[in-house]
Amino acid sequence: MRIARFAAAGADPAYGIVELAADGGEHPDTVAAISGDPLAGPVSFTGMRHRLDEVRLLAPVIPRSKIVAVARNYAEHAAELGDEVDERPLLFLKPNTSVIGPDEPIVKPVETHELHHEGELAVVIGRICRKVPVERVDEVVLGFTCANDVTARDIQRAESQWTRAKGFDTFCPLGPWIAAHIDLDGAGRLGIRTRVDGELRQDGSTADMIHPIARLVSYISEFTTLLPGDVVLTGTPAGVGPMGPGQRVSVEIESIGTLTNPVIDAADDGGFAGDGAAAR
Q1: Which of 149, 198, 220, 273 holds its CA 20 to 30 A away from the CA of 252?
Q2: How far apart are CA 161 and CA 167, in angstroms?
Q3: Do 2-57 and 67-268 show the same overall fold?
Q4: Coil, strand, or helix at residue 233?
């Protein structure tokens, strides 16, 4: 099952179940609207169905409290940046205001000259939980999606804390939907690739994680309560590199889908003028 957030013409954002023709369905690629919030309780089909190419896909989840990200969870990526592999997961937080959805622009801030892509598998938490044993992590995971842990690499090198380098608005694209049909074992052996303007930059597998998904979620839950809709970014394979205004970056994860976003310059972004402009 693939759970999406979408906006159809003239309608408020809604949740739906994506039905792909490739899965042997009766219809072309569609999204069947559901009532309710899959993170909050029971849902039901409304009977309304839309062609997937006629709706706008939104970020499949807006974390209600936090995005917990894991650094240096692939040995080759740690090596390419000259970093040591950590015995325990190295964690940092990204604000929920950094989240955008498919096809929304990543804005290159004026403060950075080294904007980098980092394609990652994201875990979406489905239940409130704390101190979850490794063997029970599957009970608290709703599903998985694609993520791009956008990074201002020069700021990251200059500052000991990574909040600013990783936390600008638009620095956490998520999508295209939540794959709830994949179990933990399956999620731990998926191909993950990042392309910039079609050029392959990253080509790895989640099987190469140093700390597997269940270990990460369990470890994080030891110090903080995880809430429905929280997101865990599991680290990036080797091959991170630059992207800039005018380019398009795509993160593709096997059995999930592809997340694509254009990159624009901050000068092309409306920004916030303190005059009541709507937040993202």
Answers
A1: 220
A2: 11
A3: no
A4: strand
Give domain limits for the chain.
Answer: 2-57, 67-268
- Between CA 195 and CA 42 the distance in angstroms is 37
> In terms of Cα–Cα distance, which of 231, 247, 217, 212 is closest to 173?
231
Rounded CA Rg of the chain: 18
Q: What are the backbone angles phi and psi of residue 157, rounded to the nearest 5°?
A: -70, -30
Burial 80-119 (b: 16+ CB within 10 A, else e): eeeeeeeeebbbbebbbebbbbbbbbbbbbeebebbbbbb
Going by C-alpha positions, the residue among 178, 218, 157, 205 that lies closest to residue 39 is 178
Please tell me the total number of residues recorded for the chain in this structure: 280
Per the CB < 8 A criterion, the answer to whether 226 and 129 are in contact is: yes
Q: What class, spelled out in words, does domain 67-268 have in CATH?
A: alpha beta
Which of 261, 222, 16 shows the shortest CA–CA distance to 119?
261
Which residues touch 275 (CB under 8 Å, ≥6 apart)?
none
SS3 9: coil
Extract the runs of DSSP E, i.e. beta strands, from 180-271.
191-196, 199-205, 231-233, 241-242, 248-253, 257-265
* Number of H-type helices and E-type strands within the chain: 5, 20
| pLDDT value for 40 | 87
Vertex 88 angle, CA 82 and 91, to 5°? 75
pLDDT along the chain (280 residues), means of 10: 93 93 74 92 90 96 94 77 76 97 97 97 97 98 98 96 97 98 96 98 96 97 97 96 98 98 85 46
The DSSP symbol for 79 reads H
Per-residue confidence (pLDDT) for residue 211, from 0 to 100? 95
